[in-house]
Amino acid sequence: FFHFFQVINNSARSHRSLFLFSVGKHPDPVTQRAGGWSPLVSDRYQWLEVDLGERTKITAVATQGRYGSSDWLTSYLLMFSDTGHNWKQYRQEDSIGSFPGNSNADSVVQNKLQQPAFARFLRLIPLDWNPNGRIGLRLETYGCPYTSEVVSFDGGSSGLAFRLSPVPRKTSREVVSLKFKALRNSGTLLQAEGRDGLSLSLELERGKLFLLEGFSVQLNSFLSGTSSSESRRLASLGSLLDDQHWHHVVLEQKNAHLNLTVDKHTEKVQIAAEFNHWDIKQLSVGAVQSLDSQKPIVSKRNFHGCLENLLHNGVNLIELKKSDRGNVTFSCAEPVSVAVTFTGPQSFLQLPGATASSSGGVSLGFQFRTWNKAGLLLTFDLPQQGGVVWLYLSEARLRIFILILSNLVPGSALNDGQWHSVDVTSRRSRLMISVDKEEGGVAHANPPFPVTAGGQLFFGDHSQDCENPFDVFQGCMRLLAVDNQLVDLITVQQRLLGNYSQLQIDMCGIIDRCSPSRCEHGGRCSQSWTVFHCNCSDSGYSGATCHTVYEQSCEAYKHNGNTSGHFYIDVDGSGPIKPQLVYCNMTGDTLTPSLLLFLPSVFPHSVHFQYSAQEEQLSAAISQSEHCEQELSYHCRKSRLLNTLEGSPFSWWRGGPGSGRIQTYWGGAHPGSQQCSCGLQGDCVDPQHYCNCDADRMEWTEDSGLLTHKESLPVRSLVLGDIQRPGSEAAYRVGPLRCHGDKNFWNAAFFDKETSYLHFPTFHGELSADISFLFKTTASSGVFLENLGIKDFIRIELSSSTQVLFSFDVGNGPLEVLVESRDPLNDNRWHRVRAERNIKEASLRLDDLPVATQEAPTDGHFHLQLNSQLFIGGTASRQKGFRGCIRSLQLNGVTLDLEERAKITPGVQPGCPGHCSSYGSLCQNQGRCVERTNGFHCDCSLSAYTGVFCQTGKYIFKPGSSVSYTFKEPYELSRNSSALPSSIYSDMTLRGENVSLSFRTNQSPALLLYVSSYYREHLALLINKNGEQDVRYKLDSSREAEVLESNVRSLANGQLHTVTIRRLSDSVSIQVKPPHQFMNVYLILFSESDDLDPDLARLASLGFAGCLSVVQFNTISPLKAALLHPDTSPVVISGPLVQSNCGSAGSANPYAEENTHHLSGKRWNSRVSAVVLYLTGVIAVAIFVIVTALAITARFLYRRKETYRNQEAKEVKQEDSQDFSFNNQAGSQNISTENPKEFFI
C-alpha cells in the first residue's frame, strides 16, 4: 500500500481554488474524518493527478465521496504515464474506459484492474457525479514496488549482443521476454541466432510486430565462402506499437512449437523442424550484430527506443551488461511530445496565426494520424480576398480548397493509423504543400493572390462560426508549428493560449479495432475512428463478423424446399471448418466420382485416392450423416483377393480418418471378417473360400459390395497383390462416397410441462454466439433457452403467440431483439429461430421474416461471461417454461443431443412426431405427405410427377428412344382377373377421360399424342399448320373422326403451353394455358400403329421436335412409369431414357382459354361455345395406349418417312391435304437442350 505520494490538481483550474482535500492510505477514510478533493467548478475538464515517485505496479483503485457532503463521483476514467506527459487511458477488455464510482459519500468502491498498470503518474478524470452535489473524491491506490533494468538505443549503431553459454543439458523450452517502448515505427527489436544459420527475429514494421524465421544460405562457397540469409514471416501481432508506451513481449519455444505474446494476445506458431534441436547462441538487441562479427550493423532498420527487463530463461541480461562499457544508455530518455485527440463533432483547436512581423506568407506544419478517410484538418481565412482556405482529407488523400481552386496533394492511404506530416508554405504567390516530405509527396500551386494566415487558425471542426462543408476530423495531431515555432499545447490546456473544445490534450486516444481482428473465418477487417467492418467476400461466410453460416447438410436444404443441385454446406456451422460445395440429391452428398481401372501386371499394385473435400470436412460430414456408403468391387480372372494358404490376405485397403487403417474385408462384408459379400451370404462360387476371386478360376468373376461402416470410410488407398502370375487379369472399382441423412437435424425433445427442462454445461460464447433451433407448440409463451452469469445472461423465449424475443446482457445493461409474426406461432407447426450475437450487433431471424438487428455500443463490455448451467425448455427458477417440441438445437455450430438427455430426464420425451403439418405443403402436384420417425416422405404414386417433392417431370429422348405403355387385352384380363388391380378395371369401359400434357415446339403441323383401341377408335392431339390446337376423336369406327379446334393461336412459338382435355360422355372441353411451373422433355414423337388415318399417318411420319412433359391419361403417367418402374410397368423402352431440363416457363403464353364441345358425327368449329348433341352408342372397349416419347434417331426417322412416302404413292394416291402442310422451324437455336447428366438417387 502507498502511504505517501504527491497530489497535483488541474493547474488550469488552480486559480479557482478547491476545498479541503487529503489523499493517501487510510484504513478507514470515514473515521479519519478527512474532507477530500473537490474543485470549485464541476465539469469534465477537471482531474486529479497522483505522482507515485517512481514506476509502480498498480493493481486496484478505490474511491469514496467527500466526507459529510453530497459530493461523489458515479463514474471516472484512469490515465497512466511514466513522465507526466503522453498519457494513456486504461481500458478494461480493450474497450471499456470508464470505471463505476460511488452511490453515496460514505461507501468505498474498489475497482481491481484486470491487467496491472506500471506507471509513475496516475490521473483520475471525473465523468459523472451526483447531480444534487458536485465532484468530490477520496482516493486510495493498491499495488507494490516495481524494479526494472532499462537500456535505450538511438536507432543507429547502439546495440547489445549477448553470447549465451551452452548448457550441459538441453532445457525443455527457451523463453525470451522483454518490454519495449518504441520511438520509431520500424526497426529490428531482437534477433536470436543458433547453429547452422538458424535464427528467429522480432521486427517492428509500421507499428506492428513480426516474427521472422531465418536461414543461412551458402553462396558460391567453393570460390568465396560467402553466405546470405533468407527469412520467412511466421506471425504478426499488435498494432500502434510506436505510441511511446511500454509493450510486453514473450517468445516461448518448445521444439517446433512457438508461442508469441504481445501484451495480452498470444498466437501459436509452427516453425521448421530444424528448430527441434536448436540452441540460442547469441541474442542481439538494438543494432543487430552477426554471430561471426564483433561490430554492429548500422542500418535504418535498427531499433530506436527503450528496452526493459530482457530475460532469457529468467536471467536478466541487461543487468549482466551494466558493467560493460558500450554505446548504450542504461536509462530511458524520452522526448516530450504532446499530442491532442479530436474525438468528434465540436472538437476544435483555435490558435493565433502568423505574427505581424511575418513576411506576408504562411508557414504551418503538423502531424496527424487517423482511421477515417475524410475529415477537415485545418481552416484559416484570407482577409484580403474574403475567402477561406480548407485543408481536408477526402478518400484518404489530402486536398486543399482556396476560394474556388481545388488541388490534390500527393500521397494516398492516409487513413492507415500511421503518423503523417503535413507542411504548408506560401511565399510570393507560390504555395507548396508536402505530405511525408521524406517520401517525396510535394505539390505546388500558383494562386493569383498571396496566401496569408494572419488571423486565427482552426484545427478540426470549424462549425462554431460557419457551416462546415466537410466531414469532421477524428484523430490525433502533434508537433503543431506556426512560423516554424512549435506550439506549446500544455499552455493551451491551461487556457493561456488559444482556445479549444472537446479535446483530449497530452494523449493520443487512437485505438486499433482490427488488432486483434474480430472478423472470423479469414474475413478482412477495416475500420474508422469509432467502428470496424468485416469484408466477408472471400471467407465463405456472411454477417457483421463473418460468422453467419450455410446450412450444415443437404437434409436442411431439402426441408427449406430446395430440390437437387449444388449447395454449400458447412458441417460444423460457425466452427473452423470451411464450407464445401457439394451436389445434393436430397438423399446424400456425392463428393467424388467412381473409378474403374484395369490393373497392370506388376506386383503389387497400389493406388491412393484423393477427395475433393478437405480432410476435416470429410470427417465431419461422415460423422454427422445417418448413413454413408462406398462401393468397392474387384473383377478378377485368375487373380486371388483375400485368402492365402498361410492366412494373410493378398490384398487390402486403408480407410478411415487421416491416412486410414488397414482393412482386410471387402465390400458387403463386416469389418475384420477377411471375407467378401458372398462369404457372408454363403453363395461363393467355391464354398471353400469366402470370396469369389479366391476360387482362382480362369473365368471372369467379381467380388463387390458396399462399405457401410462409417469408421472405415472413406477408402484412402488400395493394395492388390495377386496380379503378377501369367494369365492374371483384374480390375477394381472404388465408387463415390455417398452420405445421406443428418442425425442432428431431427434430434428433438418434447417438453410436456412448464416445469420440465433439460440442462447442459455452460455455454461459452464470450465474443460471438450463434444459436439456431426449430420449435413447435400450442402454448402462447415459454422460454426456449437460458444461461445465467453473475450479472450477464442470455435468453431466447416465446414472449407471446406472435413474438420471439432474444435478450442478453454483457455488462452494458439488457439488450433485446424482437421479431413479430403476423401469423400465430403456436399453430403446432415447425418454426425456425436463428439468433446471433457478436461485438458489433445482435440479430434475430424467425422463419423467412426479415431479420431484426440491434447494434452493440461502440465502447462497452463485449465479453459474455456465463457460469451457470444452460437450461433448455425452461429456466433456473422453473418458471415460464416451454411446452412443446424443440429440434436441431445448435450453439456455435455444435448440436446438443436433446434425445439422449431427454431419455434420463423426467417430464421430457425424446423425439417429436408430426412433421407433415409443417412440411406437407412441400409435396406438390397431388403428392401425399407420409410421416416418418425422423422426417417425412412425399408419396408421388398418384401424381404424374416424380422427385423428392413430386415436382420433377422432365425427360430427354435421344435418337432411337421410345416409350410404349400397353393396357392388357380383354382376354388377358379375364385370364388374370384375380390379380388385376382395381385401377385397371376403372379404365376398361371409358365414359370419359382426362388427358393432360405440356409442350414447347416451333413445329407446325405436329402430332403430340395418339391413343387408339383394338376397335379402331382413337384420340389424336395435334397442332395444325396454322399453329392451332386440334383434337381428333373417333369413338365409332363407322363414323368419321370429330375434329375439335381451339381458337388459341401461335402454339408453335417455342413457348410453353399446357393442354388439358376432359371428356364426359358426349361433352369435351379443351383448355390451353401457360403453366405456373413447367418440367419439360425434348423428344420426337410418332405412332407405330398401322391403322392410322392417312392424314395422321403422314403427320406422324414427320415426327415431333420439341419438349413434352407430364403426360397423363386418367391415372396413368407413361413417362413416369418408364423412368421409375421400367421393369414392372407395362412399358417398352427403346434407347436411353434420362432426365433433362428443356425449356423455361418464363416465356409461356400469357393467357388461357377453355372451349367446350359436344360430339356428333361431324366436325364442329371450335368457336361454337355450346352445342348439345348425344352419342347413340356406348363405348365398351379396352384401350390400347401407345405413347411414344423421347427422340428417335435420324436414320430411323428417315426410314419411316420413306416407308410412308412409298405407301402414299402406291396405296393412298391422293392429293396432299392443305391442313397439314409441313412447316418445321425447329432448330438448335430454338430448342433448349442440355447435356444429359446421371445423378445418384
Question: Could you characterize what this model shows?
Answer:
The chain has 1241 residues and is mainly beta. The protein has eight domains: 1-147, Galactose-binding domain-like (Jelly Rolls), CATH 2.60.120; 152-215 and 233-322, Jelly Rolls, CATH 2.60.120.200; 339-505, Jelly Rolls; 513-545, Laminin, CATH 2.10.25.10; 554-741, Jelly Rolls; 747-911, Jelly Rolls, CATH 2.60.120; 914-950, Laminin (Ribbon), CATH 2.10.25.10; 954-966 and 991-1139, Jelly Rolls. It is 7% helix and 39% strand. Strands 21, 23, 28, 29, 30, 32, 33 and 35 form an eight-stranded antiparallel β-sheet that branches. Strand 55 (803-809) and strand 56 (815-820) form a beta hairpin. The longest helix has 19 residues, at 1194-1212. It is globular. The model is unreliable at 1-5, 11-34, 217-227, 588-603, 969-988, 1075-1090, 1143-1155 and 1159-1241 (pLDDT under 50). This is Contactin associated protein like 3. InterPro entries: ConA-like_dom_sf (IPR013320), EGF (IPR000742), FA58C (IPR000421), Fibrinogen-like_C (IPR036056), Galactose-bd-like_sf (IPR008979), Laminin_G (IPR001791), Neurexin-related_CASP (IPR050372).
Shape: globular
Structural class of the secondary elements?
mainly beta
Number of domains: 8
Mean pLDDT, all residues: 76
Q: What is the makeup of the main sheet?
A: 8 strands, antiparallel
CATH topology tier name of the largest domain: Jelly Rolls
Number of helices: 12
What is the distance, rounded to the nearest whole angstrom, between the alpha carbons of the first and last residues? 76 Å
Please report the total strand number as a whole number. Answer: 82
Give the CATH class of the largest domain. Mainly Beta
CATH architecture term of the largest domain: Sandwich
Q: Radius of gyration in whole Å, from Cα?
A: 43 Å
